[in-house]
Amino acid sequence: MPKISSPTHVQGAPVFADRLRSGQTLTLVLAAYFVVQVVLRFILPHGLELDESEQVYVSQWLLAGYGAQPPFYNWLQHGAIQIFGISIITLSGMKALMLFLSYIFYYLAARQVLEDKRLAVVAALGLLTIPQVSFEAQRDLSHTVAAIFGACLFLFTLLRVISRPTLVAFLLFGIAIGIGGITKYNFAVLPVAAGLAVLMDRDMRRTMLSWKLIPAGVLALAIVAPHALWLVDNFSDASQSTLKKLGGDDAGLIGGIASGLGSLTIGFFSFTALTLIIFAAVYREHLKAIVSAHSRWTRLVGRILVLSLALIVLMILFAGFENVRDRWLTPLLLATPLYLALKVDAAKIPVEVSFKRLWGVAIVIMLLIPTALALRANMGRINGNYGYVNIPFAALSKTVAEKAAGANTVVVASDRQLAGNLHFSLPEQPVAVEPPPPGLKNRPLTDFDRVVFVWRTKDGSMPVAFDKEFSGYLLEQGITTAPQDVAIVGYPYQWGRPMDQYRFGYAVMDLPR
């Protein structure tokens, strides 16, 4: 008698395969993944990373600009803190939500132009293969996370306008450009490259050059205007740090160009290499067909990528850019997985096997990244190399709170990371840092009865003397009073070896009334 397979056994594999290609499955998996990331950050030590502490410190104010980066992420974080209060959940939750929405908009962008809609899942999973998106953004980035969101939103609205040029689509396009413009300054390269790419296609050019582009432009300008006006008055402060990073040593014209082109090449491959390798492995049987395949959409996205790189080359040649970091390329090369998915779509190859392979890679990455972040926080116990999360800011905050009690006190910190961590632990306590954010002046010390100065050496070694750290600041404030209580204190690292300590200095000064 022949063996009869159960219907469940026969139908189970196709059902599972269909689920792998489902946008709903992608959404649920990504949502679970980012919830895990938030929970992990809550479990890890609560010392704030550089960008986290920066966000907490500047959240004390709602400004049109804060320094070297545009304010979009600052505004969102300020709003979240005002609503939910300062906490690790508020900080990590904001980042996780931004990244989750980035993947969703990327998926939606791909669905609009792919003939085989199932490949939109491939495009979205491709973002996980970009280290700057999957790992660096989780580790300690804020404005780059905003730029990732802005780039994904821009790609979605751009492709929406071209495929369905309604007034609403154009207005969304204008909003996306405006939001992107206040995420990171390098985002501006992306719409310029996209505009040039569209102009190179006759049909797309006719679609885009519509009266509907005027209200879209007005919306974009309205969003950018507050920060743009601030930037006019604070251009030097806002650009100094960025230009310093992009510039280099005084190596002369030829040396500077060589350095810039070399850093661009390294940045390009560090951003795209893993993605290219993984896609090549997943589609290894069809590489020749994929490479030769093309469509109007592969041409558009390919031109955007090439023109973005060409614009950076022009900046290297004529603007003196010598140090193009891979992180700086993030919003410009983010379309790489989309381009590869479009090539696969144009090649008309079977996708069944590739989904299993790519989902396998994605799951491995989703397991490796939280594991790496957890191991990173534990390295101090193993080799004595501690990260920012291990620094005992919370223990210091208890001492500062004791010294500040009983008087109208302001805390003055020597750097923004220290200030942000103190404000995180003492949200009701005014915290200042010198210099303050551009466009903002610290309240005069004479408005307070007591000042608690806090400083450190970044590596946790013995801090310098109080007079050496704050003499210029006191002179600027017109304060001649000597501190009554000066001490160097040490606290054990969080998740560290008991004998390892991080040192801080503090000084308490009661001001004459």
From TrEMBL:
The keyword Transmembrane helix applies. The keyword Transferase applies. It is a multi-pass membrane protein. Coiled coil: none annotated. One of its GO terms (cellular component) is plasma membrane. InterPro entries: LipidA_mod_glycosyltrf_83, RgtA/B/C-like. GO terms for molecular function: pentosyltransferase activity. The chain crosses the membrane at residues 26-44, 80-108, 144-162, 168-199, 211-232, 252-279, 300-321, 358-375. GO terms for biological process: lipopolysaccharide biosynthetic process. It holds the Pfam family PMT_2. Residues 69-230 form the Glycosyltransferase RgtA/B/C/D-like domain. It is found in: Cell membrane. Keywords: Cell membrane, Glycosyltransferase, Membrane, Transferase, Transmembrane, Transmembrane helix. This is 4-amino-4-deoxy-L-arabinose transferase-like glycosyltransferase. It comes from Rhizobium wenxiniae.
